[in-house]
């Protein structure tokens, strides 16, 4: 069940009518036009990954984010997200988006398609920085990142320091990587027309394969 223009239309309508009554009245549209297509995409990506990367395994029960927002500590009390998000974990045990993922897809009023490690735990961050400082593993990461940037991938982080961590050389050749508290890449711009096309899966596969060295480096060095 691929995405259709109705998928994005529902999410735009939800932005304009972000309340429980409207959502419940249109829940069937959400389930059929938004949630099920994302679930189907995760399952299809799992099948396709099996052709070249059997260590990647999707679990649609764990690989989808809730539409409900966490409003406990937010001034914005809108109850629902206006995008649908899903991810494919790395390995059968997978973990979740707090571990490196080969694919994360977010569609709706905010679009993002990418891969990497979006939120490192403190112990993972310690290992990441040690690996960046190491001559061999750090140089390997720098080479991977440079190659992805040249291929029009955008390196992103959920958070970063203004300066290198205390006690580290501010002139270190990989200082910019040391400042990051997470490391991921956003895939090159996604044409909106592609989302509702069967070519979407192939587009994703090609870019997952291109970003795979980064995901494998993160899995190896931060686990």
Explain what you see.
A five-stranded antiparallel sheet has the order 1-2-3-5-4. It has eight helices and five strands, in the order αααβββααβαβαα. The model has no long low-confidence stretch (mean pLDDT 90). By secondary structure, the chain is of the alpha+beta class. The chain starts with a helix and ends with a helix. The longest helix is centred in the C-terminal third of the chain and has 24 residues, at 199-222.
Summarize the structure.
The protein has helices spanning 5-16, 20-25, 27-49, 122-133, 135-150, 175-179, 192-195, 199-222; strands at 83-88, 101-108, 112-117, 154-156, 183-186. With 223 residues, the chain is of the alpha+beta class.
Distance between the ends: 35 Å
- Beta-sheet strand percentage? 5-15%
- Percentage of residues assigned to helices: 40-55%
| Overall tally of domains | 1
If you average the pLDDT, what whole number results?
90
Total of helices: 8
Gross morphology is globular
Order of H and E elements = HHHEEEHHEHEHH
Give a count of the beta strands, DSSP E runs of length 2 or more.
5
Structural class by sheet pairing and helices: alpha+beta
The neighbouring-strand order within the major sheet is: 1-2-3-5-4
Map the helices and strands.
Layout: H1 5-16, H2 20-25, H3 27-49, E1 83-88, E2 101-108, E3 112-117, H4 122-133, H5 135-150, E4 154-156, H6 175-179, E5 183-186, H7 192-195, H8 199-222
Antiparallel strand pairs: 1-2, 2-3, 3-5, 4-5
Helix pairs in contact: 1-3, 5-8
Properties at a glance:
single chain; 223 residues; alpha+beta; 8 helices; 5 strands; 46% helix; globular
């Amino acid at each position: 069940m691929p995405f259709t223009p109705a998928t994005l239309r529902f999410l735009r309508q939800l932005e304009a009518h972000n309340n429980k009554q409207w959502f419940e009245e249109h829940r069937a549209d959400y389930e059929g036009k938004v949630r099920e297509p994302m679930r189907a995409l995760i399952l299809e990506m799992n099948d396709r990954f099996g052709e070249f990367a059997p260590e990647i395994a999707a679990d649609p029960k764990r690989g989808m984010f809730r539409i409900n927002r966490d409003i406990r500590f937010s001034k914005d009390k809108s109850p629902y997200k206006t995008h649908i998000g899903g991810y494919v974990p790395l390995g059968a045990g997978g973990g979740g988006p707090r571990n490196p993922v080969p694919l994360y897809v977010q569609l709706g009023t905010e679009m993002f398609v990418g891969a990497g490690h979006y939120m490192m735990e403190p112990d993972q961050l310690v290992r990441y920085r040690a690996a960046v400082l190491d001559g061999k593993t750090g140089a390997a990461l720098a080479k991977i990142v440079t190659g992805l940037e040249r291929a029009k991938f955008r390196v992103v982080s959920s958070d970063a320091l203004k300066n290198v961590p205390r006690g580290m050389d501010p002139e270190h050749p990989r200082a910019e990587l040391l400042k990051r508290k997470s490391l991921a890449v956003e895939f090159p711009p996604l044409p909106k027309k592609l989302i509702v096309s069967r070519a979407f899966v192939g587009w994703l596969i090609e870019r997952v394969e291109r970003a795979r060295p980064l995901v494998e480096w993160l899995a190896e060095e931060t686990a």
